[in-house]
Design goal:
408 residues; alpha/beta; Spore Coat Polysaccharide Biosynthesis Protein SpsA, Chain A; UDP N-Acetylglucosamine Acyltransferase, domain 1; seven-stranded parallel sheet; 8 helices
Length: 408
């Protein structure tokens, strides 16, 4: 096998807050029936890369159960190898430290190239094209890049290149950028160069962006591979909800085509019956996963397997995860609701025009989204206004939850 893929899937994803309270970010459900990591794994399978190691760390159980032996991605064959690796001494201090702690695994691989990937981005990419760029340029490191809006450059590692796409400058989250080419956190290394850099560069929080890339830029050929298709980091509530709802657009406007039979997105799927739609149901612009029963109204929303929307219930602009039940008369609007939640009779999630930011964490919630954690039971006729965070252990001591509240 010429290429070893290392998928970094150990980060907690603190900006996803309640959704990553009991699972690692790559294991968060997405687009109805999928998990976020399914996109990276499917890209590997579709690109013919079958030597894969997933570097886990934080709450790995859900992710490990989902991946299993890799059968949905065709990774359980005799000529494939799928490994789940954990920290061997202490928690990973940086992206490169995660690889350094598993350096013996990399050394034993017969691969010539090492492909470093993130397990928490949503995109479709043929990695063979990037590896070809790496080979043709004679690079020791190739970085996938994408143009971003200039006002967003402070969020990324920003690269400057010459006319041949050779990288001449790298700035980690600059305040004032002279380029808008952002690193996607996808790297192709010559294996021997990667091993040398990991053991040469010294830092407690060894990181590709902070340490390894600047080190190699000093005396090695580092090139950019421009990727101009859909790519999104769904690491915030706003981006997560937006990315899900974008998939409900009309066929000619969907930014990420998951219906392409030449590039399938694979997943471990539950055996559930087909969707059932009642005689008085209304469904418009929605993704409805297997096992759902819709007897009420679902508008521009994404429903994961096993969700029940009872007669007279309304779901708008929301993402509802597995086995949640919306009872008659309940209204859910502009919300992210985790698994096994009960929205009882007449309850309202997302009510009123008061958009007071969340008082405990205004950076997480200020656009009017409500987030309900796994297993919450919302009492009947309860009104939850805007920008509220409802934890699994929440105790409801009133019928109205004011905007900006957090219930623990």
């Amino acid at each position: 096998m010429e290429t070893l893929a290392l998928i970094l899937a150990g980060g907690r994803g603190s900006r996803l807050d309640l959704l990553s309270e009991k699972r690692v970010k790559p294991a968060v459900p997405f687009a109805g029936k999928y998990r976020i990591i399914d996109f990276t794994l499917s890209n590997c399978s579709n690109s013919g890369i079958y030597d894969i190691a997933i570097l886990t760390q934080y709450l790995p159980l859900s992710l490990n159960e989902h991946i299993g032996v890799g059968k949905p991605w065709d990774l359980d064959r005799r000529d494939t190898r799928l490994s789940l690796l954990q920290p061997n001494k202490e928690w990973y201090a940086g992206t490169a430290d995660a690889v350094l702690q598993n350096i013996e695994y990399v050394k034993r691989s017969p691969a010539r190239y090492v492909l470093i990937l993130s397990g928490d981005h949503v995109y479709k990419m043929d990695y063979r094209k990037m590896i070809k760029t790496h080979q043709e340029k004679g690079a020791v490191l190739t970085i996938a890049v994408q143009p971003v809006a200039w006002e967003e450059t402070h969020r990324f590692g920003i690269l400057t290149t010459d006319t041949d796409h050779k990288i001449t400058k790298f700035s980690e989250k600059p305040k004032h950028a002279d380029s808008n080419l952002a690193s996607m956190g996808i790297y192709v290394f010559d294996k021997d160069v990667l091993l040398d850099a990991l053991t040469t560069v010294e830092a407690e929080d060894l990181d590709f962006g902070k340490h390894i890339i600047p080190h190699l830029l000093q005396n090695a050929s580092v090139y950019a591979h421009v990727f101009d298709d859909y790519w999104k980091d769904v690491g915030t509530y706003d981006s997560y909800l937006e990315a899900n709802l974008e998939l409900t657009a009309t066929v000619d406007q969907i930014p990420l085509d998951m219906y392409d039979r030449n590039w399938r997105i694979f997943t471990r799927s539950e055996e559930m019956p087909a969707v059932k739609v009642g005689s008085n149901a209304t469904i418009k612009q929605a993704l409805i996963a297997n096992g759902c029963i819709i007897a009420g109204e679902v508008i521009r929303s994404v429903l994961s397997p096993g969700v029940i929307v009872h007669p007279g219930a309304i779901v708008r602009g929301s993402v509802i995860l597995n086995d949640t039940e919306i009872m008659p008369g309940a209204i859910v609007e502009n919300a992210i609701i985790d698994k096994n939640v009960l929205v009882d009779f007449g309850a309202k999630v997302g009510h009123g025009d008061d958009h007071t930011p969340n008082q405990d964490n205004p950076d997480l919630l200020s656009s009017g989204i409500n987030v309900i954690a796994k297993g919450v039971k919302i009492p009947e006729n309860t009104v939850i206004e805007r920008n509220c965070r409802i934890f699994s252990s929440a105790v409801f001591d009133g019928k109205t939850i004011k905007s900006g509240s957090t219930l623990r």
